[in-house]
Amino acid sequence: MTKKVSLTYITNDSARKATFKKRKKGLMKKANELSTLCDIQACVIIYSQYESHPEVWPSPLGVQHIVSQFRSLPEMDQSKKMVNQETFLRQRIVKAKEQLKKLRKENREKEMSRVMFQTDCPVPPTPAAVPAAGDHALNLNMQATMERQAFGLSNMGNTMQRPSWFTDMMNPNEQMGFGAVAEVLPFGDQYHHGLWSNNPFFP
């Protein structure tokens, strides 16, 4: 795995010189590949403290020809896509911020959809657990969905707290008709004797 290079000034002289020679060679190679593969006119001019004269590619004559063509263009075309290091970094920062904003929006929409359509959630999510959204209508729909889920779970809890057999036990007279039997069947000695006289297990 290649180690990530920190783009900071190399304070060590020998290390800086070695890096310069290595990167310069790579730059020349890339310029040659770009010119050959894409059929474009390119040149490289490098000024450094290590050489008394600038180093050029592909040749001094070739560099002069390309520079002359560039200067013959209108000033507007010359600076159309020209940037310095500060402008380049600013453009990259703006692009990165836009990409981050897009990813946050996509993640927020996915999270809101998951919350709105998750009907089997055992505990209704709270609004604080959902990322803030810019669309007020989506927030209202999500809030209404969570309230419906909470209401449904509350009713389910009330129903489960009092099952049917518990209700029957609490109202035995209505379910089993004991009141009517008590009115029809007397509890005197005569009835007791007649009821069990034919039973071989009771004298």
From TrEMBL:
Superkingdom field: Eukaryota
Cellular component, GO annotation: nucleus
Pfam families noted in UniProt: SRF-TF
Alphabetical GO biological process terms: positive regulation of transcription by RNA polymerase II
Subcellular location: Nucleus
Protein name as catalogued: Agamous-like MADS-box protein AGL80 isoform X1
Record key words, sorted: Coiled coil, DNA-binding, Nucleus, Transcription, Transcription regulation
MF terms in GO: DNA-binding transcription factor activity, RNA polymerase II-specific; protein dimerization activity; RNA polymerase II cis-regulatory region sequence-specific DNA binding
Annotated coiled-coil segments of the chain: 86-113
Native source species: Prunus yedoensis var. nudiflora
Domain MADS-box: 1-49
